[in-house]
Amino acid sequence: MAEATAHAEHKQPAIKLYLFVWGLLFVLSAFSYMVDYVGVQGYPRWFLIILFMLLKAGLIVAVFMHMAWERLALVYAILLPPVMVLVFVALMIPESNYTLFTRMAFFGTAP
Amino acid sequence: MSRTAQTESNETGLTRASGLGGFAADWASDQRAFKNVSWGKAMMWIFLLSDTFVFGCFLVAYMSARMSTVEPWPNASEVFALHIGGENVPLILIAIMTFVLISSSGTMAMAVNFGYRQDRRKTAALMLLTAALGALFVGMQAFEWTKLISEGVRPWGNPWGAAQFGSTFFMITGFHGTHVTFGVIFLLIVARKVMRGDFESGRRGFFTSRKGNYEIVEIMGLYWHFVDLVWVFIFAFFYLW
Protein backbone atom coordinates (compact mmCIF):
# COMPACT_ATOMS: atom_id res chain seq x y z
CA MET A 1 0.00 0.00 0.00
CA ALA A 2 2.99 2.26 0.49
CA GLU A 3 3.40 2.12 -3.27
CA ALA A 4 -0.12 3.34 -3.83
CA THR A 5 0.25 6.34 -1.54
CA ALA A 6 3.53 7.19 -3.18
CA HIS A 7 1.69 7.32 -6.47
CA ALA A 8 -1.16 9.40 -5.22
CA GLU A 9 1.46 11.94 -4.22
CA HIS A 10 3.22 11.73 -7.54
CA LYS A 11 3.46 15.31 -8.72
CA GLN A 12 2.32 15.71 -12.28
CA PRO A 13 3.21 18.78 -14.28
CA ALA A 14 0.44 20.32 -16.35
CA ILE A 15 -0.19 19.16 -19.90
CA LYS A 16 0.51 22.72 -20.97
CA LEU A 17 4.19 22.31 -20.03
CA TYR A 18 4.50 19.23 -22.25
CA LEU A 19 2.92 21.04 -25.18
CA PHE A 20 5.28 23.98 -24.64
CA VAL A 21 8.35 21.72 -24.58
CA TRP A 22 7.05 19.84 -27.60
CA GLY A 23 6.80 23.14 -29.50
CA LEU A 24 10.26 24.13 -28.32
CA LEU A 25 11.71 20.82 -29.58
CA PHE A 26 10.08 21.43 -32.96
CA VAL A 27 11.58 24.90 -33.18
CA LEU A 28 15.04 23.67 -32.12
CA SER A 29 14.88 20.82 -34.67
CA ALA A 30 13.88 23.31 -37.34
CA PHE A 31 16.85 25.47 -36.35
CA SER A 32 19.31 22.58 -36.55
CA TYR A 33 17.85 21.63 -39.95
CA MET A 34 18.26 25.24 -41.09
CA VAL A 35 21.97 25.06 -40.19
CA ASP A 36 22.32 22.50 -42.98
CA TYR A 37 19.79 24.09 -45.34
CA VAL A 38 21.39 27.53 -45.17
CA GLY A 39 24.82 25.93 -45.44
CA VAL A 40 26.68 27.29 -42.41
CA GLN A 41 30.16 25.77 -42.49
CA GLY A 42 33.18 25.30 -40.24
CA TYR A 43 33.22 26.20 -36.56
CA PRO A 44 29.91 28.14 -36.53
CA ARG A 45 28.23 25.02 -37.95
CA TRP A 46 29.69 22.69 -35.33
CA PHE A 47 28.90 25.14 -32.57
CA LEU A 48 25.25 25.52 -33.65
CA ILE A 49 24.76 21.77 -34.17
CA ILE A 50 26.06 20.99 -30.68
CA LEU A 51 24.15 23.88 -29.11
CA PHE A 52 20.79 22.78 -30.54
CA MET A 53 21.58 19.12 -29.80
CA LEU A 54 22.32 19.82 -26.13
CA LEU A 55 19.26 22.03 -25.73
CA LYS A 56 17.02 19.33 -27.21
CA ALA A 57 18.62 16.57 -25.14
CA GLY A 58 18.31 18.68 -22.00
CA LEU A 59 14.62 19.37 -22.58
CA ILE A 60 13.84 15.72 -23.26
CA VAL A 61 15.68 14.46 -20.19
CA ALA A 62 14.53 17.21 -17.83
CA VAL A 63 10.85 17.45 -18.73
CA PHE A 64 9.77 14.43 -20.78
CA MET A 65 11.80 12.01 -18.65
CA HIS A 66 10.93 13.92 -15.43
CA MET A 67 14.56 14.28 -14.38
CA ALA A 68 13.84 17.82 -13.16
CA TRP A 69 11.57 16.37 -10.46
CA GLU A 70 13.83 13.53 -9.29
CA ARG A 71 16.08 13.60 -6.25
CA LEU A 72 19.75 14.38 -6.84
CA ALA A 73 20.73 10.81 -5.83
CA LEU A 74 19.16 9.52 -9.08
CA VAL A 75 20.04 12.55 -11.21
CA TYR A 76 23.76 12.26 -10.49
CA ALA A 77 23.80 8.46 -10.74
CA ILE A 78 22.37 8.63 -14.26
CA LEU A 79 23.69 11.88 -15.73
CA LEU A 80 27.29 11.95 -14.51
CA PRO A 81 28.60 8.59 -15.86
CA PRO A 82 27.85 9.44 -19.53
CA VAL A 83 30.11 12.49 -19.16
CA MET A 84 32.97 9.97 -18.94
CA VAL A 85 32.34 9.20 -22.62
CA LEU A 86 34.10 12.53 -23.24
CA VAL A 87 37.27 10.96 -21.82
CA PHE A 88 36.91 8.19 -24.40
CA VAL A 89 36.47 10.84 -27.10
CA ALA A 90 39.58 12.65 -25.88
CA LEU A 91 41.53 9.37 -26.09
CA MET A 92 40.30 8.52 -29.56
CA ILE A 93 41.05 11.89 -31.17
CA PRO A 94 44.88 11.55 -30.98
CA GLU A 95 44.50 7.85 -31.81
CA SER A 96 42.55 8.70 -34.97
CA ASN A 97 45.06 11.35 -35.94
CA TYR A 98 47.85 8.83 -35.49
CA THR A 99 46.03 6.29 -37.69
CA LEU A 100 45.57 8.96 -40.34
CA PHE A 101 49.25 9.91 -40.10
CA THR A 102 50.42 6.32 -40.55
CA ARG A 103 48.05 5.78 -43.45
CA MET A 104 49.37 8.85 -45.20
CA ALA A 105 52.97 7.99 -44.40
CA PHE A 106 52.80 4.37 -45.58
CA PHE A 107 50.13 4.43 -48.28
CA GLY A 108 51.12 7.85 -49.57
CA THR A 109 47.56 9.12 -49.90
CA ALA A 110 46.43 12.54 -48.82
CA PRO A 111 42.91 13.24 -47.58
CA MET B 1 9.11 25.07 -11.95
CA SER B 2 10.16 26.11 -8.47
CA ARG B 3 9.97 23.09 -6.21
CA THR B 4 13.22 23.74 -4.44
CA ALA B 5 12.31 23.62 -0.79
CA GLN B 6 15.18 22.57 1.42
CA THR B 7 13.30 19.58 2.70
CA GLU B 8 10.64 17.32 1.28
CA SER B 9 8.11 15.46 3.34
CA ASN B 10 6.97 11.99 2.40
CA GLU B 11 3.98 9.85 3.26
CA THR B 12 5.35 8.90 6.68
CA GLY B 13 5.65 12.53 7.70
CA LEU B 14 9.44 12.34 7.87
CA THR B 15 11.35 15.06 6.14
CA ARG B 16 14.15 14.29 3.76
CA ALA B 17 16.95 16.71 2.98
CA SER B 18 17.17 17.92 -0.59
CA GLY B 19 20.10 19.35 -2.51
CA LEU B 20 23.64 18.11 -2.10
CA GLY B 21 23.08 17.20 1.53
CA GLY B 22 20.16 15.04 0.45
CA PHE B 23 22.29 13.42 -2.23
CA ALA B 24 24.94 12.48 0.33
CA ALA B 25 22.32 11.30 2.83
CA ASP B 26 20.54 9.14 0.21
CA TRP B 27 23.71 7.44 -0.94
CA ALA B 28 24.96 6.92 2.61
CA SER B 29 21.65 5.54 3.85
CA ASP B 30 20.49 2.00 4.54
CA GLN B 31 18.78 -0.31 2.07
CA ARG B 32 18.24 1.94 -0.90
CA ALA B 33 19.80 5.00 -2.49
CA PHE B 34 16.88 5.98 -4.71
CA LYS B 35 14.37 6.98 -2.06
CA ASN B 36 11.17 7.89 -3.82
CA VAL B 37 11.81 5.88 -6.98
CA SER B 38 10.47 2.35 -7.39
CA TRP B 39 12.82 -0.48 -8.34
CA GLY B 40 11.24 -0.68 -11.79
CA LYS B 41 11.95 2.92 -12.59
CA ALA B 42 15.47 2.82 -11.14
CA MET B 43 16.26 -0.31 -13.17
CA MET B 44 14.94 1.26 -16.37
CA TRP B 45 17.17 4.27 -15.76
CA ILE B 46 20.18 2.02 -15.18
CA PHE B 47 19.39 0.05 -18.33
CA LEU B 48 19.17 3.33 -20.23
CA LEU B 49 22.52 4.35 -18.77
CA SER B 50 24.08 1.17 -20.11
CA ASP B 51 22.42 1.77 -23.46
CA THR B 52 23.89 5.27 -23.45
CA PHE B 53 27.32 3.68 -23.36
CA VAL B 54 26.45 1.36 -26.24
CA PHE B 55 25.42 4.26 -28.44
CA GLY B 56 28.30 6.32 -27.07
CA CYS B 57 30.72 3.64 -28.27
CA PHE B 58 29.08 3.59 -31.71
CA LEU B 59 29.38 7.34 -32.05
CA VAL B 60 33.00 7.33 -30.85
CA ALA B 61 33.75 4.54 -33.36
CA TYR B 62 32.12 6.65 -36.06
CA MET B 63 34.22 9.64 -35.05
CA SER B 64 37.43 7.57 -35.17
CA ALA B 65 36.55 6.07 -38.56
CA ARG B 66 35.69 9.46 -40.00
CA MET B 67 38.80 11.18 -38.61
CA SER B 68 41.24 8.51 -39.70
CA THR B 69 40.09 7.83 -43.25
CA VAL B 70 42.21 9.12 -46.11
CA GLU B 71 39.26 9.32 -48.48
CA PRO B 72 36.75 12.17 -48.28
CA TRP B 73 33.65 11.48 -46.18
CA PRO B 74 30.43 11.47 -48.28
CA ASN B 75 28.42 14.67 -47.87
CA ALA B 76 25.36 13.64 -45.85
CA SER B 77 23.49 16.70 -47.02
CA GLU B 78 23.66 15.43 -50.61
CA VAL B 79 23.49 11.70 -49.89
CA PHE B 80 20.23 12.05 -47.95
CA ALA B 81 18.66 14.60 -50.28
CA LEU B 82 15.34 13.74 -51.87
CA HIS B 83 14.36 14.76 -55.39
CA ILE B 84 11.09 16.63 -54.91
CA GLY B 85 9.44 18.78 -57.56
CA GLY B 86 12.47 18.95 -59.82
CA GLU B 87 15.02 19.97 -57.20
CA ASN B 88 17.05 18.29 -54.52
CA VAL B 89 15.93 19.11 -51.01
CA PRO B 90 18.79 18.29 -48.60
CA LEU B 91 18.10 15.97 -45.67
CA ILE B 92 14.35 16.42 -45.98
CA LEU B 93 13.44 12.82 -45.13
CA ILE B 94 15.66 12.92 -42.05
CA ALA B 95 14.07 16.19 -40.95
CA ILE B 96 10.59 14.67 -41.28
CA MET B 97 11.74 11.59 -39.36
CA THR B 98 13.04 13.88 -36.60
CA PHE B 99 9.71 15.68 -36.35
CA VAL B 100 7.82 12.38 -36.31
CA LEU B 101 9.95 11.02 -33.46
CA ILE B 102 9.69 14.24 -31.44
CA SER B 103 5.92 14.17 -31.89
CA SER B 104 5.82 10.59 -30.67
CA SER B 105 7.78 11.69 -27.60
CA GLY B 106 5.24 14.44 -26.98
CA THR B 107 2.29 12.05 -27.20
CA MET B 108 4.11 9.62 -24.91
CA ALA B 109 4.71 12.31 -22.27
CA MET B 110 1.01 13.12 -22.36
CA ALA B 111 0.10 9.44 -22.12
CA VAL B 112 2.14 9.19 -18.89
CA ASN B 113 0.34 12.23 -17.53
CA PHE B 114 -3.12 10.84 -18.31
CA GLY B 115 -2.04 7.49 -16.90
CA TYR B 116 -1.40 9.02 -13.49
CA ARG B 117 -4.80 10.69 -13.75
CA GLN B 118 -6.28 7.19 -14.28
CA ASP B 119 -7.73 8.25 -17.62
CA ARG B 120 -7.60 4.86 -19.30
CA ARG B 121 -9.08 5.80 -22.65
CA LYS B 122 -6.81 8.81 -23.28
CA THR B 123 -3.70 6.99 -22.01
CA ALA B 124 -4.27 4.03 -24.33
CA ALA B 125 -5.17 6.27 -27.28
CA LEU B 126 -2.04 8.38 -26.84
CA MET B 127 0.13 5.26 -26.49
CA LEU B 128 -1.33 3.81 -29.67
CA LEU B 129 -0.67 7.13 -31.42
CA THR B 130 2.91 6.99 -30.12
CA ALA B 131 3.28 3.45 -31.46
CA ALA B 132 1.86 4.53 -34.83
CA LEU B 133 4.34 7.40 -35.08
CA GLY B 134 7.14 5.02 -34.11
CA ALA B 135 6.07 2.58 -36.81
CA LEU B 136 5.96 5.47 -39.29
CA PHE B 137 9.52 6.35 -38.30
CA VAL B 138 10.72 2.78 -38.85
CA GLY B 139 8.90 2.74 -42.19
CA MET B 140 10.66 5.88 -43.34
CA GLN B 141 13.96 4.43 -42.18
CA ALA B 142 13.30 1.30 -44.25
CA PHE B 143 12.61 3.57 -47.23
CA GLU B 144 15.88 5.39 -46.61
CA TRP B 145 17.85 2.14 -46.36
CA THR B 146 16.24 0.86 -49.57
CA LYS B 147 17.12 4.06 -51.40
CA LEU B 148 20.73 4.01 -50.21
CA ILE B 149 21.20 0.33 -50.96
CA SER B 150 19.79 0.81 -54.46
CA GLU B 151 22.30 3.63 -54.94
CA GLY B 152 25.13 1.25 -54.13
CA VAL B 153 25.86 1.91 -50.46
CA ARG B 154 27.26 -1.20 -48.78
CA PRO B 155 29.03 -1.72 -45.46
CA TRP B 156 32.25 -2.14 -47.43
CA GLY B 157 31.91 0.73 -49.89
CA ASN B 158 29.87 3.38 -51.60
CA PRO B 159 30.09 5.50 -54.75
CA TRP B 160 30.97 8.77 -53.02
CA GLY B 161 34.01 8.26 -50.83
CA ALA B 162 35.14 6.67 -47.58
CA ALA B 163 34.03 3.04 -47.30
CA GLN B 164 33.40 3.42 -43.57
CA PHE B 165 30.38 5.60 -44.31
CA GLY B 166 28.22 2.58 -45.13
CA SER B 167 29.30 0.46 -42.18
CA THR B 168 28.80 3.20 -39.61
CA PHE B 169 25.51 4.27 -41.18
CA PHE B 170 24.01 0.78 -41.17
CA MET B 171 25.38 0.04 -37.72
CA ILE B 172 24.16 3.19 -35.98
CA THR B 173 20.81 3.71 -37.68
CA GLY B 174 20.17 -0.03 -37.66
CA PHE B 175 20.70 -0.30 -33.94
CA HIS B 176 18.56 2.75 -33.34
CA GLY B 177 15.82 1.43 -35.63
CA THR B 178 15.87 -1.85 -33.71
CA HIS B 179 15.32 0.09 -30.49
CA VAL B 180 12.38 1.92 -32.06
CA THR B 181 10.90 -1.38 -33.26
CA PHE B 182 11.11 -2.97 -29.83
CA GLY B 183 9.66 0.20 -28.36
CA VAL B 184 6.66 -0.04 -30.68
CA ILE B 185 6.08 -3.67 -29.68
CA PHE B 186 6.20 -2.86 -25.96
CA LEU B 187 4.02 0.21 -26.45
CA LEU B 188 1.36 -2.00 -28.00
CA ILE B 189 1.61 -4.51 -25.14
CA VAL B 190 1.34 -1.84 -22.43
CA ALA B 191 -1.43 0.01 -24.30
CA ARG B 192 -3.44 -3.22 -24.37
CA LYS B 193 -2.97 -3.63 -20.62
CA VAL B 194 -4.09 -0.04 -20.04
CA MET B 195 -7.11 -0.46 -22.27
CA ARG B 196 -8.12 -3.69 -20.52
CA GLY B 197 -7.83 -1.98 -17.12
CA ASP B 198 -5.08 -4.26 -15.81
CA PHE B 199 -3.63 -1.47 -13.68
CA GLU B 200 -6.94 -0.87 -11.93
CA SER B 201 -8.15 -4.43 -11.45
CA GLY B 202 -4.76 -5.58 -10.18
CA ARG B 203 -4.52 -8.28 -12.83
CA ARG B 204 -1.19 -10.06 -12.67
CA GLY B 205 1.31 -9.77 -15.53
CA PHE B 206 2.17 -12.79 -17.67
CA PHE B 207 5.89 -12.79 -17.04
CA THR B 208 6.54 -11.72 -13.45
CA SER B 209 2.99 -12.42 -12.22
CA ARG B 210 3.19 -9.15 -10.33
CA LYS B 211 0.41 -6.63 -10.20
CA GLY B 212 1.14 -3.56 -12.27
CA ASN B 213 0.21 0.05 -11.86
CA TYR B 214 0.28 3.14 -14.02
CA GLU B 215 3.95 3.64 -13.26
CA ILE B 216 4.56 1.03 -15.98
CA VAL B 217 3.37 3.62 -18.47
CA GLU B 218 5.98 6.03 -17.16
CA ILE B 219 8.72 3.39 -17.31
CA MET B 220 7.71 2.60 -20.88
CA GLY B 221 7.82 6.35 -21.51
CA LEU B 222 11.38 6.58 -20.21
CA TYR B 223 12.47 4.00 -22.78
CA TRP B 224 10.62 5.77 -25.55
CA HIS B 225 12.05 9.20 -24.71
CA PHE B 226 15.49 7.63 -24.63
CA VAL B 227 15.03 6.41 -28.20
CA ASP B 228 14.15 9.98 -29.16
CA LEU B 229 17.16 11.24 -27.22
CA VAL B 230 19.54 8.94 -29.08
CA TRP B 231 18.11 10.17 -32.37
CA VAL B 232 18.92 13.77 -31.35
CA PHE B 233 22.58 12.77 -31.11
CA ILE B 234 22.56 10.68 -34.30
CA PHE B 235 20.87 13.53 -36.18
CA ALA B 236 23.49 15.99 -34.98
CA PHE B 237 26.61 13.89 -35.44
CA PHE B 238 25.83 11.65 -38.37
CA TYR B 239 23.49 13.68 -40.57
CA LEU B 240 24.40 17.28 -39.84
CA TRP B 241 28.12 17.20 -39.00
Automatic annotation (TrEMBL), chain A:
<keyword id="KW-1003">Cell membrane</keyword>
<feature type="transmembrane region" description="Helical">
    <location>
        <begin position="46"/>
        <end position="65"/>
    </location>
</feature>
<feature type="transmembrane region" description="Helical">
    <location>
        <begin position="17"/>
        <end position="34"/>
    </location>
</feature>
<dbReference type="InterPro" id="IPR005171">
    <property type="entry name" value="Cyt_c_oxidase_su4_prok"/>
</dbReference>
<dbReference type="Pfam" id="PF03626">
    <property type="entry name" value="COX4_pro"/>
</dbReference>
<keyword id="KW-0812">Transmembrane</keyword>
<keyword id="KW-0472">Membrane</keyword>
<keyword id="KW-1133">Transmembrane helix</keyword>
<feature type="transmembrane region" description="Helical">
    <location>
        <begin position="72"/>
        <end position="93"/>
    </location>
</feature>
<dbReference type="GO" id="GO:0005886">
    <property type="term" value="C:plasma membrane"/>
</dbReference>
<protein>
    <submittedName>
        <fullName>Cytochrome C oxidase subunit IV family protein</fullName>
    </submittedName>
</protein>
TrEMBL record, chain B:
<comment type="subunit">
    <text>Heterooctamer of two A chains, two B chains, two C chains and two D chains.</text>
</comment>
<feature type="transmembrane region" description="Helical">
    <location>
        <begin position="124"/>
        <end position="143"/>
    </location>
</feature>
<feature type="transmembrane region" description="Helical">
    <location>
        <begin position="42"/>
        <end position="65"/>
    </location>
</feature>
<feature type="transmembrane region" description="Helical">
    <location>
        <begin position="163"/>
        <end position="191"/>
    </location>
</feature>
<feature type="transmembrane region" description="Helical">
    <location>
        <begin position="91"/>
        <end position="112"/>
    </location>
</feature>
<dbReference type="InterPro" id="IPR024791">
    <property type="entry name" value="Cyt_c/ubiquinol_Oxase_su3"/>
</dbReference>
<dbReference type="GO" id="GO:0005886">
    <property type="term" value="C:plasma membrane"/>
</dbReference>
<dbReference type="GO" id="GO:0004129">
    <property type="term" value="F:cytochrome-c oxidase activity"/>
</dbReference>
<feature type="domain" description="Heme-copper oxidase subunit III family profile">
    <location>
        <begin position="44"/>
        <end position="241"/>
    </location>
</feature>
<keyword id="KW-1133">Transmembrane helix</keyword>
<dbReference type="Pfam" id="PF00510">
    <property type="entry name" value="COX3"/>
</dbReference>
<comment type="function">
    <text>Cytochrome bo(3) ubiquinol terminal oxidase is the component of the aerobic respiratory chain of E.coli that predominates when cells are grown at high aeration. Has proton pump activity across the membrane in addition to electron transfer, pumping 2 protons/electron.</text>
</comment>
<protein>
    <recommendedName>
        <fullName>Cytochrome bo(3) ubiquinol oxidase subunit 3</fullName>
    </recommendedName>
</protein>
<dbReference type="InterPro" id="IPR013833">
    <property type="entry name" value="Cyt_c_oxidase_su3_a-hlx"/>
</dbReference>
<keyword id="KW-0472">Membrane</keyword>
<keyword id="KW-0812">Transmembrane</keyword>
<dbReference type="InterPro" id="IPR000298">
    <property type="entry name" value="Cyt_c_oxidase-like_su3"/>
</dbReference>
<comment type="similarity">
    <text>Belongs to the cytochrome c oxidase subunit 3 family.</text>
</comment>
<feature type="transmembrane region" description="Helical">
    <location>
        <begin position="212"/>
        <end position="240"/>
    </location>
</feature>
<dbReference type="GO" id="GO:0019646">
    <property type="term" value="P:aerobic electron transport chain"/>
</dbReference>
<dbReference type="InterPro" id="IPR035973">
    <property type="entry name" value="Cyt_c_oxidase_su3-like_sf"/>
</dbReference>
<keyword id="KW-1003">Cell membrane</keyword>
